[in-house]
Design a protein that fits this description.
By secondary structure, the protein is mostly helical. It has a domain of about 130 residues: Tetracycline Repressor, domain 2 (Orthogonal Bundle). It is about 70% helix and about 0% strand. The protein has ten helices and no strands. The longest helix has 25 residues. The protein is elongated and about 60 Å long. The protein starts with a helix and ends in a 5-residue tail after the last helix. The N terminus is likely disordered. It holds the Pfam family TetR_N. Keywords: DNA-binding. InterPro entries: Homeodomain-like_sf (IPR009057), HTH_TetR (IPR001647). One of its GO terms (molecular function) is DNA binding. This is AcrR family transcriptional regulator.
Length: about 200
Amino acid sequence: MAETTKAKTKRRPTSRHKESPLNEQDWVQAALQILINENVRGIKIDTLCAKLGVTKGSFYWHFKTRSDLLGAMLSHWRKKMTLNVIRSISISGDNPRARLRSLFSLPRRKNSPGFAQIETSIRDWARRVEMPRKAVAEVDEIRFDYITKLFRDMGHPPEEARKRAYLAYCLIMGDSILHSSIDPMSQEEFLEKALAMTTGVAQG
């Protein structure tokens, strides 16, 4: 009888989803996927451990608290979808108009739908919580300053450069949301019209 009870209560071996040891990015990516599929409330330590097939000890090896993980998620988003993008575009050439064209093309690149899901989920989270709200404000400022510099490099005075940068950023963000459902023009046509709209002669 004791042996039967013991057999029933014996824990199943932990199932790992990868053979190599987990690193911080594995936890961040798993948490981001939950954020996309559910919301930030779904990001729980127990849930993540079950998803990754490890014990809580593995989590606490990388993060002291759940809040630390959420902060790492925001840092990852800031780096991958802003700082790395700016670095990549900046080394692609010296022509500011060509760099702006590359920015306009971002929402229509192969991996962009996945990035857009993360962006939307973080911005939705930021509507209710201060920590992501600050991260979003910082990211918007970094992106806006970079686009403003592109217009300054094209020869526009500071105030005009800021206005054109704002319009350009609106077009980029809007296209990332709308082009998959409302797409009346090809990518090439969108790029040409966006460039013409933002770099052409200002009216009045």
